[in-house]
């Protein structure tokens, strides 16, 4: 059976998940600004509980973003270090699609609007629709991007959704409650899915693994979406 470890530090959530002997185990913590302290102990704990070593994994899965610059960078760096040390293939998973997968598994949703608060009056945003595919006699969900992942203002997001019947969609992510523009738009059905969990990255990673669609540790590339962040330099550091 396939054994996969997933990690994610891209948002305020810090999470690890393990698929071993057909069973899922996961730890999720709200660990804002403490990801670097928590992620490795969480990995050690989940592997120890399952009685396996890192080099017994078939592949390593990680949340490649979008999310906070620091969080995405931490996750990519940890994944690269672990994969290099144990000579593991890597599967990179979108944090937005991860929440859509959770919505499918918990609510049966196949049409999902995703928005994570990106601060500075912007959200990480995408619109996804699920399609069922069969692989090796197993059914998986494959997510199609109707609106590609992007960072944009709430108004820009809404402008792209103006022709969508609201009742057909559900929303996931912190972005929907963060901005007043969304609250008055009456978009779809709200869920309690606010942040991505590594548990659902495993569901997304399985078909990639079976089709050998992985990368090496040196090919890891975080996805920030926001390439430039405006910030005020300290005096004397211009």
UniProtKB/TrEMBL annotation:
Record carries keyword Cytoplasm: yes
CDD domains from the UniProt entry: ASKHA_NBD_TsaB
Recorded GO CC terms: cytosol
GO terms under biological process: proteolysis; tRNA threonylcarbamoyladenosine modification
Localisation per UniProt entry: Cytoplasm
InterPro entries: ATPase_NBD, Gcp-like_dom, T6A_TsaB
Name recorded for this polypeptide: tRNA threonylcarbamoyladenosine biosynthesis protein TsaB
Source organism: Canicola haemoglobinophilus
Lineage: Bacteria, Pseudomonadati, Pseudomonadota, Gammaproteobacteria, Pasteurellales
């Amino acid at each position: 059976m396939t054994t996969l470890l997933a990690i994610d530090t891209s948002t305020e959530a810090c999470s690890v998940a393990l698929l071993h002997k057909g069973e899922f185990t996961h730890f999720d913590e709200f660990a804002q600004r403490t990801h670097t302290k928590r992620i490795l102990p969480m990995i050690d704990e989940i592997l120890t509980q399952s009685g396996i070593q890192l080099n017994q994994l078939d592949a390593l899965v990680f949340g490649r973003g979008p999310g906070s610059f620091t969080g995405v960078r931490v996750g990519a760096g940890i994944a690269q270090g672990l994969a290099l040390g144990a000579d593991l293939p890597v599967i990179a998973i979108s944090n937005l699609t991860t929440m859509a997968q959770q919505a499918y598994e918990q609510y049966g949703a196949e049409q999902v609007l995703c928005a994570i608060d990106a601060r500075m009056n912007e959200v990480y945003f995408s619109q996804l629709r699920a399609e069922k595919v069969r692989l090796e006699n197993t059914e998986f969900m494959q997510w199609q991007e109707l609106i590609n992942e992007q960072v944009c203002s709430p108004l820009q997001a809404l402008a792209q959704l103006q022709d969508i019947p609201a009742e057909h969609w559900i929303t996931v992510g912190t972005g929907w409650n963060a901005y007043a523009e969304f609250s008055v738009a009456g978009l779809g059905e709200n869920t309690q899915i606010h942040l991505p969990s590594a548990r659902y990255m495993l569901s997304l990673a399985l078909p990639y693994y079976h089709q050998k669609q992985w990368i090496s540790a040196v090919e890891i590339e975080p996805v920030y979406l926001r390439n430039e962040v405006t910030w005020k330099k300290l005096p004397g550091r211009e």
